[in-house]
Design a protein that fits this description.
Length: about 400
């Protein structure tokens, strides 16, 4: 039994219970390959109550993940508040005092919920069509050993583009990655072990690897790979980024700004997926994280994922995300409950159509008349007079 929900319940305790169930699934799945995770289970007391008598086999995983989805979405844990921009037709109202923030941004924010692969397949895919662009990120921690699990997840979520981080592949192993229905494009870490980024791209999607013509510029603080796809009325750049933990955030900020200075362009939309190892749940408590988040907003990015993507016994953090400039095409964003690695996969769906919104019959507009123009000039003269008097004091 999970810890009880309620006003006095401990969210971290509940998340620990949820993490323990995912670990238990990984243990059962990995016994055949002698990967022993039971040392982690021994430290989690919640398993001793209720879970010891349960048989978590692969065949019963669907129902188990549905239960996990229900529990995880019931938690009242920390969440990043993202205020979505207001469509053009709703911006200007007829009031005398217009708050610029409320004029440009909605009062309510969106939220990304947890969902099992089966429920994603049953619900969020029901309206899937050729007019939908679906992107998925997986921190796989050794792609070569996870291809079966990833293929199973792709069959249920049917993404157009899959961004992969921590592939742990050498360049000479790229040909070993064969997943039906997808083309593989990878980039190994230049030096040392680990790391690596890659894409799985649906066969019917036309793409080009996007080079920035900056051979002399090397981003020391992160690994990245970019592709370009042509959608209706625009070019979309999709990037996968892996920032290793432990490196200075100011250095990453500098490299990230440089990357975006090369990506800017008219009629171009950008979607960046990856493991940034920047916990956005600390945006109000950590100076460098706050600076990074504000720079995202300044660059017209909004994060699609708002809840923790990595949950352990003692921590919960939002370090994987999907940053997009085409926020007005975002249809849904979810966190997939999966035990592929210690990071949860994240997924977002975008409309392929050029964004348009049907104007409301009751939409308010600023009315400009001779009288309102006269009042504006009077106010302007008063402001000039105030400024002049201050300067002469």
């Amino acid at each position: 039994m999970p810890p009880p929900l309620g006003a006095d319940s401990d969210d971290l305790s509940q998340l620990t219970w949820l993490d323990s169930k995912l670990i238990e699934r990984r243990v059962n799945r990995n016994l055949a390959t002698n990967i022993d995770l039971r040392s982690r289970l021994n430290d989690i007391s919640e398993l001793e109550i209720g879970l010891a008598s349960l048989d978590y086999s692969v065949n019963s995983s669907d129902g188990e993940l549905d239960d996990l989805e229900l529990e995880m979405n019931s938690l009242h844990g920390p969440e990043l508040e993202v205020i979505s921009p207001v469509p053009e037709c709703e911006k200007i109202n007829g009031s005398d005092n217009i708050d610029p923030d409320q004029n440009l941004f909605r009062i309510t924010s969106w939220s990304s919920n947890y969902v099992s692969p089966e429920n994603f397949q049953r619900t969020l895919l029901k309206d899937l069509s050729l007019k939908t662009l679906t992107v998925l990120h997986i921190n796989c921690r050794s792609l070569l050993h996870k291809t079966t699990e990833i293929q199973d997840l792709l069959e249920k979520t049917r993404p157009t583009i899959v961004a992969l981080t921590e592939t742990w592949l050498d360049d000479n192993l790229s040909d070993c990655i064969q997943i039906p229905g997808y083309n593989f494009v990878g980039k190994a870490r230049d030096k040392g072990r680990g790391g690596g980024v890659a894409f799985l791209i649906e066969n019917n999607c036309n793409y080009l690897v996007y080079n920035l013509d900056d051979k002399e510029t090397k981003y020391e603080s992160f690994e990245s790979l970019l592709i370009k796809i042509e959608l209706k009325n625009c070019t979309t750049i999709i990037g996968v980024i892996y920032r290793p933990p432990g490196l200075g955030l100011p250095d990453f900020q500098k490299d990230f700004d440089l990357l975006n200075s090369k990506l800017e362009g008219k009629n171009k939309e950008i979607i960046l997926l990856g493991d940034f190892n920047i916990d956005l749940l600390k945006v109000n408590d950590h100076k460098d994280t706050n600076i990074f988040y504000n720079s995202l907003i300044a660059l017209h990015y909004l994060p699609a994922i708002t809840k923790p993507t990595r949950i352990t016994k003692n921590t919960k953090s939002l370090i994987d995300n999907i940053f997009c400039t085409n926020w007005n095409k975002l249809l849904s964003a979810s966190i997939i409950i999966s035990d592929i690695s210690d990071h949860l996969p994240i997924i977002a769906q975008f409309s392929n159509e050029k964004y348009s919104i049907k104007e409301s019959a009751n939409a308010e507009r600023r009315v400009i008349t001779a009288s309102s123009q006269k009042n504006f000039l009077i106010c302007l003269k008063q402001l000039v007079g105030i400024k002049s008097s201050i300067m002469h004091e």
